[in-house]
Amino acid sequence: MERLNTVIQAIIERKAKQQGPLCAYVYDLDNLRVHTASLSASLPPSVRLFYAVKANADERILKTVAPYVTGFEVASGGELQKVRRLFADSPVIFGGPGKTDEELAAAIEERVALIHVESVWELQRLNWIAARRQTTVRVLLRVNLRQAASGATLHMAGKPTQFGIDEQHIAEAIHTALTLPSIDLQGFHFHSMSNHTDEQAHLSFIETCLSFVAQAETTYGRRFSVVNVGGGVGVHYNEPDRQFRWNWFSKELNLLLRRQAPPHWTVIFELGRFIAAHNGYYAAEVLDLKTNYGTHFAIIRGGTHHLRLPAAWKMNHPFLVIPIDEWPYPFNRPSLHNQRVTLAGELCTPNDILARDVPCARLRVGDIVLFRCAGAYGWDISHHDFLSHPHPEFIYLESSM
Ligand SMILES: *Cc1c(COP(=O)(O)O)cnc(C)c1O
């Protein structure tokens, strides 16, 4: 569970100390530590949990989760270098649809544990790069499953996308992998969706992955050792007090693996959103309130250049209002009561909207809007320097250890 009161208190204290309007990301590292530790502890022993760095690559987040994950999933040479600077020896797995020769070579140099290969051409290129270094690389083939689960916000498989290898072409890829001397085919990678909130459907998806590998073992008469089921566990953005029922899910997962995963398999999860989302917040002060053509707008010090997710997904980002009673001006304070409000940012584009027509009990200029579930794909996916407004502050809640 989130520590909302602690976060609100920290923001009120920060506001009291500062001059201009407040705009800050708050990362509750103490609670992130507890959350990641409990995720990791609940997983069956044959499962390895990796953190997908792209969800939030803040160094302090990486350092906080590091003790509780097996390692990191990186999706670029840049992420790889970032992880290696911080953790010289952590296991790293490397994926992504467009890897350059330089990135593949760096992955070998940096002793990446597994490379997720996304096409037959990439397989050949990797083999060539590894052969010239007189080494072999451990590889998973990324499968674009025909029967990937539906119901998530983003789907990378089960339909035409740039990800992975079409299940219809996988036989050729396996065949190629098995004949290339510098490729050591360890298994398969199935990351197929993001923001999946249906626990039962996510389990069925994992079952599909397991069946695929079992079938491949029969077809090729050999054992594989790694089944990477990817990430994709979701957040209820429209209902932030509700969470993916991880305890139920991990119990069922335990049973499923006991039934369907032979002991020579290691199952990998590479979670991003579900690790990072709930302990990150974005706080921004209301600069103006106005009613244009019947719609009430609050304009905040900040916007989608800091938190692009709601604009990208055309959704209302969940928020609450932190009342700030202090009012320095000698004239009336603009405010609205029991109205629907649209939260807009400070950018000069009508697309800078974080929530539209949302009921609000009271909002005044000078109050602070606190966006929840902002720790994953928030700051990291935003266009920070559009319009050259100052960046937010970053506040880390971390008791000294
Ligand atoms: C982004 C990504 C993840 C993490 O996905 P979440 O939905 O954040 O859990 C895992 N694996 C791959 C290959 C990814 O691209």
From TrEMBL:
Keywords: Pyridoxal phosphate. InterPro entries: Ala_racemase/Decarboxylase_C (IPR009006), De-COase2_C (IPR022643), De-COase2_N (IPR022644), Orn/DAP/Arg_de-COase (IPR000183), Orn_de-COase (IPR002433), PLP-binding_barrel (IPR029066). Belongs to the Orn/Lys/Arg decarboxylase class-II family. Its cofactor is pyridoxal 5'-phosphate. One of its GO terms (molecular function) is diaminopimelate decarboxylase activity. Residues 33-277 form the Orn/DAP/Arg decarboxylase 2 N-terminal domain. The active site is at C348. It comes from Geobacillus thermopakistaniensis (strain MAS1). This is Diaminopimelate decarboxylase. It holds the Pfam family Orn_Arg_deC_N. Residues 25-375 form the Orn/DAP/Arg decarboxylase 2 C-terminal domain. GO terms for biological process: lysine biosynthetic process via diaminopimelate; polyamine biosynthetic process. The keyword rRNA-binding does not apply. The modification N6-(pyridoxal phosphate)lysine is found at K54.
